Amino acid sequence: MDKKISIILSTYNEAPFVVQTINEILNNIKNVEIILVDDNSPDGTLEKVKNVNNPNIKIFSRKFRGLASAFLLGLINSSGDIVGWVDSNMKSAAAKLPEMIDQLNNNDVVLLSRYVEGGSDKRSKQRIFCSKLINNFLFLIYSIHV
Fold first, then answer.
1. CATH number of 17's domain
2. Do 48 and 103 reside in the same domain of the chain?
3. Tally of domains in the chain
4. Where on the phi/psi map is residue 132: left (φ > 0), alpha (ψ -120 to 50), or beta?
5. If you count DSSP H runs as helices and E runs as strands, how many of each does the chain have, helices first?
6. Domain range for 100
7. How far apart are CA 135 and CA 113, in angstroms?
């Protein structure tokens, strides 16, 4: 697939992980732009990203926080034919992006999730329990699986 790919990264205090994730994206996807939206991270996230010094990275720095509005800002400023989003602290998820892009030949939407067939959850037992509890609660209220 020769289409331009835009990947949105929303960051807040991701200094230990963000450069690895960016490198994983740049090493595995041709013709990619990365739109990074940082929500005023005090841990030096923005400085680490600026040190990557790659013209395919668009950086936006905001004074407030919010995942949905950060994603929207990234979406508005993307120029790709295909737009994706990945957690900036999940290098392993970024490594799966080429496979996901290939799946777009036969699908309109591709989702990588611990909750889909083949997904796995490597978080702590406490986080897994809380996540399942919240999902079951949402199912009771809305009668849909999240």
1. 3.90.550.10
2. yes
3. 2
4. alpha
5. 6, 4
6. 5-112
7. 14
